[in-house]
Design brief:
single chain; 245 residues; alpha/beta
Length: 245
């Protein structure tokens, strides 16, 4: 059974761990505590690794993240029973992601990335770089869902209007996002809006379409929410135990 189906059956939100660096000690802690792990999958000259693209580091000036070799980390996750949140960081990384899903098990994986169909420009900052290698057509998610029906898929939106969920003028844009997601069998969505603008009303609206939004719980007061959502946090102690589903 897929992660999204388990969450729906549990009637409780599930919070995933988000990190850019997968160290041996951090992964060991996540496995010991039966939490989850975030795996950013990328390639450079056909060589797979955990992290962001060379383009990202060259344009942002950020140093490379010091993570475990990808297959060491994947093997450790596969041998455990924790869930994996797999993010595509390069459009050429999809064959690697398929292998990662195969090793870990599709029912324990949530796979996502930025999709070209949801690339907007409303909230892009002045001189904010566009990492071209991070964009993939949404059909890549549909394809992996067709190959592994038990995988949970996530489409990520970038640079939407900040007030997309609070201003009626953007209602058609929301409905466009929903329609494209449904056409491509998307299970969950990262809307890219301020997390505190995602209300119960909006969660119910997406739920009617069988889509569940993500909320970064570090940036929002989720105590006021009663509907289901998928949470993300940079703090391992705030994540959900995988075995509770």
């Amino acid at each position: 059974m897929s992660i999204i189906k388990k969450i729906n059956q549990s009637t409780k939100p599930f919070v995933f761990f988000h990190t850019w660096t997968v160290s041996e000690s951090l992964l060991k802690q996540a496995i010991t505590e039966q939490k989850s792990m975030d795996l950013d999958v990328c390639v450079d000259n056909d060589k797979p690794y955990l992290g962001h693209s060379r383009e990202y580091h060259e344009k942002s000036g950020e140093p490379y993240f010091k993570s475990l070799p990808i297959w060491d980390a994947v093997d450790k996750v596969a041998q455990s029973d924790i869930f994996a949140m797999i993010d595509c960081k390069h459009y050429d990384a999809w064959p690697v992601i398929e292998e990662v899903v195969k090793k870990i098990g599709s029912d324990r994986c949530i796979v996502g990335g930025y999709v070209s169909e949801f690339k907007f420009g409303y909230s892009r900052g002045d001189n904010e770089p566009d990492y071209l290698s991070e964009w993939s057509p949404i059909e890549k998610l549909k394809s992996i869902k067709m190959k592994y029906p038990s995988v949970t898929t996530t489409a990520c939106v970038k640079w939407p209007p900040v007030d997309m969920l609070t201003n009626n003028r953007y209602r058609r844009l929301v409905e466009y996002i929903i329609a494209v997601s449904k056409d491509n069998n998307i299970d969950t969505i990262c809307l890219g809006v301020p997390d505190d603008t995602i209300t119960d009303q909006w969660l119910r609206h997406f739920k009617k379409e069988n889509i569940m939004p993500h909320i970064v719980i570090d940036n929002a007061d989720t105590s006021k929410l009663t509907e289901l959502y998928i949470g993300e946090t940079d703090h391992l102690e705030r994540t959900t135990v995988s075995s509770t589903l």
